[in-house]
Structures
1.
Amino acid sequence: MLRRLAPFVADLVQHRDLLWQFTVRNVELRHKGSYLGIVWSLLNPLLMLALYVLVFGYIFGGSFGRAGETRLEYGLTIFLGLTLFHFATEALVTAPAVIVGNPNFVKKVVFPLEVLPAANVGAAAVHLLIGLALVLLGVVTLGGGLTLSALWLPVILLPLVLLCLGINWLFSTLGVFLRDIAQLIQFLSLALLFASAVFYPISRIPADAWVFMRFNPVLIAIDLARNTVLWHEPIRGAHLAYLYFVGLVSCYAGYAVFRRLKPAFADVL
């Protein structure tokens, strides 16, 4: 029954031990050879936060327009947005090389290749959890504190994870047949940064741009997370429903494309 309703969930549950092993492997490989190891998962977002706050907060005088907003609160708001954005782009940028970089597994008939893109998202999720832990710690100790509205955060993250799963299955498939797609994704990730309202509130988006930007699921996820975690506002049900719709459709579509074209991987590689 589960396989019929959500085949990707059934496959991941069936191979959950293998998924965990490859997730840990991916995290270790990304920090292999460095002295600080996984500590860079803390240092990288903090260094980027300091840079962006300096440039956008102090040099350009950025603000989210909240009453009594301090530079520290501005920094926490950016940090939350960057954490969600980096999760999405980390999964996106690394997707084209997931299958191409593991040809030995492709040639093993019994190996469940669906696990490789999912483990890629899992490794990105580890960095996401570290970043969110820093955000929540900052809100509790330096910000306005947490309220019950922060409990919406896992509900907001779930469709974002589904979206990244679908994107990984799709682009890992395309990466086998179209090697140039990796170069295109580098540009798309930069464009996504400025189209996701990481450094500014969505209220500042011009009406003619909002016509297109309102369909960006990363922007919607960041805005929902800020509203509930930092600003203690009620959840916007329509935006959350749209996020789930996009996440589920992307996951189903990406998984379907992957399964459809998987038999041709060995011939191309």
2.
Amino acid sequence: MSAPKPVLRPIVFREAEIADGETCDVLVVHDEIVAVGSVNPPQDAMVVDANGARLLPGLHDHHIHVAASVAAMQSVRCGPPEVTDLKGLGQALGRPGEGWLRGVGYHESVAGLPDRHLLDELASHRPVRVQHRSGRMWFFNSAGLDILLADHAPPPGLERQAGEWTGRLFDEDSWLRSALAATPPVFDAVGGALARLGITGLTEMSPANALVEAGHFAAQMVCGALPQRVVLAGSLALGEWQPQDRLALGPFKLHLHEAHFPDWDETLAAIRAAREQGRGTAVHCVSEAELVFTLGLFAELGVTKLDRIEHGSVIPDALLETLLHMGLPVVVQAGFVETRGDQYLADIPQVEWPWLYRLASLQDAGLVIAGGSDSPYGGADPWAAMRSAVERMTLAGQLFGPQEALSPERALALYLADPFDLGRIRQIEPGVAADLCLLDRPWSQARDILLAQRVRMTVCCGTVVYRADD
């Protein structure tokens, strides 16, 4: 159900920089840019004096998990860099209170793969569940397990050793939501936080998204909790969704797991079904084996302009040549270089380092790449990810593939790509949607240190959704 569109005041940006050293006026009427140049503002217009500051198309996060991001905001951090050892984990989980304590971001470098006995030692006073940073594993203490199994049969993914439950749950998010009687969260906290970062568009990438999730997104957008435009990827069940004004149908999400690849013929059939729905396929590839499997699928089916690779964490030169030949774009998470780089350098053989989270060499070869956060499994701040792409520095101060560094301009362009044509960079020009990000200074100054604090105003669909001076 769509709500009637509000009556919007025109907006005029005076002397805004839309290209290096080029300033002009920009007129927004309703949800469209209608004039760029010298503008006589309508009588009822809101006039914003940009004073030479850069006006950008609104940033687009090309890979995010919105509901999980809301949950993460209400959880405690249980992994690096905040928590790095068993003592820190105990402090994180030992906080007083009643009801569920939800931890996120756990990595086995902290204390291996915890079982319920370890979690009981750290926190037995309340039910606890801790999510691995991959999003694929949960760890429960005994109190938590008792709640889950009181009225629900254990799923196949609940680990059992020597006749008892370990408290480790693998790839069972649907079962967990049912067991917890979870209701969809309100999105206002995430919507507001993203607006402050200059983000006006999202590609939501949770593979289980279906009609219920689409309806929830639509309701959250109508009520204003989520002001951004959304491209909703997910399951084949989404093919029945009728796209709405700001909620578009995105690709079929194929989430590969190297340890358990899906049936080949069934996977080909799913991709064909997505194409019959007019959708591309976005394939999760974080290992070389997953990328090889994916390239084999597309070698058999061919590639459409809506197909894409998610993450591309490991891309050897031989596979890069195949990607180029097929024309498959990759949505990267440049922020992982900073936040996870130290762990990668510790865990991965040095011979493979040149293949990890490549950026410049992919672009130089002619491959199309765009930027996503993978929030909450990565940080949501695109400016931090841009800095990571430019500096290629880990949290501990180690250089991580410095030959892959991008210029500030190329890093910014990762978030200006058209979500339906990743090879096209959106521009400030008449006839395009009024999704805008005004900085507080010219680009020649902003490029030196890429910071979210430089965002002065964000406009989504012709509506001001963030002003720094408010």
